[in-house]
Amino acid sequence: MSLIELKSVHKSYKGMVLFEDTDLSIEKGKIYGLVGPNGSGKSVLFKMICGFVFPDQGSVTVRGEQLGKKNRFPQNFGIIIDRPGYLANKTGFENLKYLSMIKEKIADKQIKEAMIAVGLQPTAEQKVKNYSLGMKQKLALAQAIMEDQDILILDEPFNALDIDSTERMRNLIFTLKEQGKTIIFTSHNQEDIDILSDHVFRVRNFNLEHLK
Ligand SMILES: Nc1ncnc2c1ncn2[C@@H]1O[C@H](COP(=O)(O)OP(=O)(O)OP(=O)(O)O)[C@@H](O)[C@H]1O
Ligand SMILES: [Mg+2]
To answer: CB of 29 closer than 6 A to ligand 1?
Structure first.
């Protein structure tokens, strides 16, 4: 059984078609790269996989359970879609601590480890409002991985990262794969896609084309 399965998905916004009769199967423990032009529907696809929006027709199934109004958010997802809003007057650690209190799954130690893994200093007193773009991106990544979720949905995780940070993030993603996690990501950088992906899909003609 596939971990995530889309069957005959149709999705439009106000008459603008994004997906038409689209199928997708995601297997556990692999890295999937998703490419396609601006506005082609990559982020919308991610939102459907996470249960934030629903298809107009067709189904999205996660671990055998179809997502719907009564079964909205699948368990054990670590997600970056659109840069999340953070509390500007708090430090990075304080922000993650606050978010970790929703699930109460992890202690400070794991938050600090996630920050270090992405290259942020847990003890830094800098407020998030003074973070650079790349630092905010790292904070979003730390948030996505901190709870050790088995499915990571990463929409443009490499955005705004410098060369060393990109390298670090690629290694981190490989390490997460070795731990058995399933990763689906988008990038407009072909090198990220080529290096990381076991499978590559491109949004084209309102459908997904399996490139690799
Ligand atoms: N809630 C919404 N209401 C109306 N239109 C929407 C909504 N969400 C997305 N869209 C539209 O759907 C299209 C696809 O958007 P999406 O964000 O998925 O593109 P994308 O492939 O992620 O692009 P990019 O590469 O720029 O991130 C866009 O035209 C967008 O305006
Ligand atoms: Mg997008």
So the answer is: no
